[in-house]
Design goal:
heterodimer; A: 176 residues; alpha+beta; four-stranded antiparallel beta sheet; 4 strands; 12% strand; B: 428 residues; globular
C-alpha cells in the first residue's frame, strides 16, 4: 500500500464497524492491523484461508520421502556395509530418520511459508510513516484502505469512516 | 486495566535494573562457563583419557549428562506445544520461559556427544555431506538417529520460539526509547506489523509448529532411549525404555521449570502473571509423570526377575559401592514427589523449590544408575569393572549448569520472557 486512507481506533468493535462500512461500499483492497490475532477479521476482510497447513503437509511428505531416499542411497546403494548381517536395505531401521526429516521439513515449511506469505522481511513500508502507527503493536486498531481499489473514492470514504468515530484519520501518499 | 496499560506494565516490569543478586548470579554463572570452556579445550587437547570414561563404562558421564540435559528440555515443548494444542490458556505466561529453557538445555546436551566422539572436529561425519572419500553415515546405528532427532528437535523448537517472539520484537521496536534497541529489535522483528494477513498466516504456522513439536517431544527421548534399547547391555535391552524415558524427561523438565520460574517471579514481581495456579499445575504434572517413572522402576525389577536373564538379575540384585546413587534416585524420584499430593506443599514456593531441586538430583542419579550400573556388570564377568569420574568430568558437568544459567540470565535481561502479545488476547 503506497497511498490511501488510514484510520485508527481504540476499540476492536469500532474497527469491525469500519471494515463493514468499507466493505459495504465495495472496497476490497483493505488491511487491518491489530496488536494481537483476531481470527474473526478474516471473514470480514474477505481473506482466503491460509494455505500454510497444506504447505506444511507437503513439506513434511517431501522431507520424509527425501529422508528415506537418502538413507537408501547411502546404505543400500553407495556404501552397503554388512553390519551384523542386516540387509543393506532395511526399512525398519530407516523409519526413525524418515519421520524426523518429515517433522523437520514440515516445520521449516511452516516457518518460511509464514514469512513468505505474510510478506515479512520488508523493514520499511509507507504505512510505517503514518503518525502514531506504532500503536498497532501496543493497543491500537488500524484500518488501511489502498487507493488502488476500484471503489476508492477518498472524500466519500473518509466521510463514511468519520462516522465510525476513529481516533485519527489520515490520507497518505499522492491521492488519485 | 486496558490493553495499552497491560502492555506498558508488563514490558516495564521485565526491564528492572540489575540488582546485587543478579550480578552475583551472573558472576557465578560466568565463572562456571569459563571453567566449562577451559575444560573442553583441555579435553580436546589432551584427549578423552582425562575423563574417567573407559572400558567397560565407555558411556558414563558424558552420556548421563547428555540424557539429563535433553530430558530437561522436554517440559518446555510440552508446555508450549502440547498445552497449546489442548487450549490450556494458563500456559501463556510461562510458555516463553520454558521454550527458552528447552533451547538452552539442548545446547548443553549437544556438548557431550560431540566431545565424547574423541575427535569432535569430525562431528560433521554424522551428517550425510558429499564426501570425496565415499564413506557415508551408517544409518542402521542409533547414533545417526540421535543426530537427526536432536537437531530436528532443536531446529523446530527454535522456529517455534522465534515465531512466537516476532510480534513481541515488533512491540519492542516500536516502543523502545533508545535508537540502538529500536534498530536491534527492528531487525529481529523482520518487518512485523500485525496486519490481519500476517496474523492469519502466523496463527496457522504457529499451530502447525505446535502440532509438529508435540510428537517431537515423544520422539526425541524415544530415540535417545533406543540408543540403549537396541543394545544388549543388562538393564538396557527392553521395550520399556521409550515411555519410561519420555515420562522421566517430562518429570525432570517440570521440576526444572519450577526451579527457574519460582526465583524469576519473585525477582521480577510477577506473582500476578505467574500465579500460584501455574505452580500448582506444574507440581501436579510433576506428580503424574513421577508416578509413571516410579511404575517404570517397579516394572524394571519385575522384568529382571521375570525374564530370569542371569546378567539382568545379577545387575539388579547385587549391591555395589554406587548403590548409594540408586537409593538417592529412589528417595528423590519416588518419595519426594509424593509431597505434591498435599495442597499446602503445592502452594508453598519454598517447598516446591527444594522438592524440584531434589527431583533434578534424582533424575541425574537415575541416568547414572541406568548407564553405569549396566555397563559395570555386563554379560561377561571377565569384563566387569568399576567406574569413577575424574575432576574433569565433574568440572564439565558443573560448567554446563553455569553456561545454562549464563544464557538464561542474559535472556531474562534482554528479551521479553513473558509472551506479551499472547497475554493480550486474554484481557481482550
Amino acid at each position: 500500500v503506497k497511498r490511501g486512507i488510514a484510520v485508527e481506533y481504540d476499540e476492536l468493535r469500532d474497527l469491525v464497524a469500519a471494515i463493514r462500512a468499507a466493505r459495504e461500499r465495495g472496497v476490497v483492497r483493505l488491511e487491518a492491523y491489530t496488536p494481537y490475532p483476531v481470527p474473526e477479521l478474516d471473514a470480514l476482510l474477505g481473506a482466503p484461508p491460509s494455505p500454510l497447513a497444506i504447505v506444511t503437509g507437503l513439506g513434511a511428505i517431501c522431507g520424509a520421502a527425501g529422508g528415506y531416499f537418502l538413507q537408501w542411497l547411502l546404505n543400500a546403494y553407495l556404501y552397503p556395509v554388512n553390519s551384523g548381517g542386516r540387509p543393506p536395505h532395511m526399512p525398519l531401521a530407516f523409519v526413525i530418520i524418515t519421520i524426523e526429516m518429515g517433522f523437520l521439513f514440515g516445520g521449516l515449511s511452516a516457518f518460511f511459508g509464514c514469512l513468505g506469505w505474510s510478506r515479512l522481511f520488508a523493514l520499511w513500508r509507507p504505512v510505517d510513516d503514518l503518525e502514531g502507527f506504532e500503536s498497532e503493536t501496543r493497543a491500537g486498531y488500524w484500518l488501511v484502505i489502498d487507493a488502488g481499489d476500484p471503489h476508492y473514492d477518498a472524500p466519500s470514504l473518509a466521510a463514511a469512516l468519520r462516522e465510525t468515530s476513529p481516533k485519527s484519520l489520515q490520507m497518505f501518499g499522492d491521492q488519485p | 486495566m486496558t490493553i495499552g496499560q497491560f502492555h506498558d506494565d508488563l514490558f516495564a516490569r521485565m526491564r528492572p535494573r540489575p540488582n546485587r543478586y543478579w550480578r552475583l548470579a551472573f558472576a557465578i554463572a560466568a565463572g562456571l562457563t569459563l571453567l566449562l570452556f577451559s575444560l573442553m579445550a583441555y579435553t580436546i587437547g589432551a584427549g578423552i583419557g582425562v575423563w574417567g570414561t573407559n572400558i567397560p563404562a565407555a558411556w558414563a558421564f558424558p552420556i548421563i549428562n547428555f540424557v539429563f540435559w535433553i530430558g530437561i528440555g522436554h517440559a518446555g515443548t510440552f508446555i508450549s506445544a502440547i498445552l497449546y494444542l489442548f487450549e490450556q490458556r494458563w500456559r501463556n505466561s510461562i510458555s516463553r520461559l520454558t521454550e527458552t529453557m528447552t533451547l538452552f538445555a539442548v545446547m548443553q546436551a549437544a556438548i557431550f556427544p560431540v566431545l565424547h566422539l574423541g575427535r569432535p572436529w569430525f562431528a560433521y561425519w554424522l551428517f550425510p555431506y558429499p564426501d570425496v572419500m565415499g564413506v557415508w553415515p551408517q544409518v542402521k546405528s542409533a547414533l545417526p538417529w540421535d543426530a537427526a532427532a536432536v537437531t530436528t528437535y532443536f531446529t523446530v523448537s527454535l522456529l517455534f520460539w522465534y515465531l512466537g517472539l516476532v510480534p513481541d520484537f515488533a512491540a519492542l521496536r516500536d516502543h523502545s526509547t533508545t535508537r540502538g534497541r529500536r534498530v536491534a529489535f527492528g531487525l529481529l522483528a523482520i518487518g512485523w506489523r500485525g496486519s490481519a494477513t500476517a496474523w492469519r498466516h502466523w496463527r496457522v504456522a504457529y499451530l502447525m509448529l505446535a502440532a509438529i513439536a508435540t510428537p517431537l517431544v515423544i520422539s526425541v527421548h524415544s530415540v535417545v532411549s533406543s540408543d540403549f534399547a537396541i543394545g544388549l547391555t543388562p538393564g538396557w535391552h527392553t521395550t520399556l525404555q521409550p515411555p519410561f524415558f519420555v515420562a522421566g524427561a517430562i518429570f525432570s523438565g517440570f521440576a526444572m521449570v519450577l526451579l527457574l520460574v519460582i526465583p524469576i517471579r519473585a525477582v521480577f514481581g510477577l506473582q500476578d502473571v505467574i500465579t500460584p495456579r501455574h505452580l500448582d499445575n506444574c507440581a501436579k504434572l510433576t506428580l503424574v509423570t513421577g508416578s509413571i517413572v516410579a511404575y517404570g522402576y517397579l516394572i524394571e525389577f519385575f522384568l529382571g526377575w521375570y525374564t530370569s536373564d542371569p546378567a539382568d538379575k545379577y545387575m539388579m540384585l547385587h549391591a555395589r559401592p554406587d548403590i548409594v546413587i540408586f537409593w538417592v534416585m529412589v528417595a528423590c524420584n519416588v518419595i519426594v514427589p509424593q509431597l505434591f499430593w498435599s495442597r499446602r506443599v503445592r502452594h508453598s514456593t519454598r517447598a516446591l523449590f527444594v522438592a524440584s531441586l531434589l527431583i533434578n538430583v534424582g533424575m541425574w542419579a537415575e541416568r547414572f544408575v541406568i548407564i553405569v550400573r549396566g555397563l559395570e556388570r555386563d554379560q561377561l564377568p571377565a569384563a566387569w569393572g568399576t567406574y569413577w569420574p575424574t575432576w574433569v568430568d565433574i568440572g564439565i558437568l558443573a560448567g554446563t549448569f553455569g553456561f545454562f544459567g549464563l544464557l538464561f540470565l542474559g535472556f531474562v535481561r534482554l528479551l521479553p520472557f513473558v509472551p506479551v502479545t499472547e497475554m493480550k488476547e486474554a484481557p481482550a
